[in-house]
Every structure is written in C-alpha cells, then in structure tokens.
C-alpha cells in the first residue's frame, strides 16, 4: 500500500525532497543498517558514493538497487522529474564508485545498460517497485537511464563515511 501511495505526484515530490535526507539521518543513527525507505516500503537500499562531476568531491546518496548476479543495477528515475538525478551525472563523469550496504563496502565500475539490458532491467525494476512505471510516464521526453555496476577490485581509501558525506551535501556535481 505504501508503495502505491509513493507514486502519487504530491507524495513523490515530497519524497524527492525529504526521503534521502531522512535516509541519511537514519543510516547515521543506526550505523548503516536501516533507512526510512526500507522501513516504509520494504525495498533494500545501498549508499552510492561517487565523486562530483565538476567538483570531484565525494558525494553519497542512498538508492534502491536491483541485483543481477554480481552486478548492481541503478535506475536514474529521479522520482519522474524531467531531469536526470545529480548522481547520474557524477557516475557518468567518474564511473568508479563505492557501494555500501549494511556496513559492507565494495568498489564497482558503472556503465550504461545496453538496449537489450535496459528492457530486461526495466521489467525487473517495475516488478520490484511499480512506481517506476508512473515515473516513466511523468518524466516526459526524458529517457530514464539504467546503469549497470560491476565489481572492480579493492576498496579505495575512504572518501569519508559512505552514508554521510562530511560536507553534508547531497549527491551533486
């Protein structure tokens, strides 16, 4: 029921502004174990840490992942907004990222999904969270990018606490 409610435009706007800060706060409070997203919807959350596209400063953002074997798939839906999320631009500029989940970290290399992968992952995304279909309808002409992250070697030196950037800034460039 909560997942259906989150698709409504007013609720989605509210979540776009408030959910990630709430998730960051709860991640900090619980030592990286819980998010509001998970509590409300049952969806898993990972923290993506990348470098800003222009600033190269560390940027962290909680996101809902799709898992495909060792690959982690991220949907850049931006809650159906007409622009790509900042983390997408960061990831395209700096594709080597760290994912954190439940106090574990791993390094991944990101790339756009091929058209064949996009179709498969989009079906997977909508099956996981039906709200993605509403986001796609709402974002107009913007194609929603899907990124595939594959494991990429040892963990680099820390960029700061992966769930809570030292700057306190959201994932942006």
List the helices and strands and how they pair.
Elements: H1 2-5, H2 9-29, H3 36-41, E1 46-51, E2 58-63, E3 65-68, E4 71-75, H4 86-93, E5 96-101, E6 104-112, H5 115-128, H6 131-138, E7 146-151
Could you give a short description of this structure?
It contains six helices and seven strands. The protein is α+β, with helices and mostly antiparallel strands.
Structure characteristics:
seven-stranded antiparallel beta sheet; single chain; 173 residues; 7 strands; alpha+beta; globular
Provide structural commentary.
The longest helix has 21 residues, at 9-29. The N and C termini lie far apart (35 Å). Strand 5 and strand 6 form a beta hairpin. This protein has a seven-stranded antiparallel beta sheet with strand order 2-1-5-6-7-4-3, sandwiched between helices. The protein has helices spanning 2-5, 9-29, 36-41, 86-93, 115-128, 131-138, and strands at residues 46-51, 58-63, 65-68, 71-75, 96-101, 104-112, 146-151. By secondary structure, it is of the alpha+beta class.
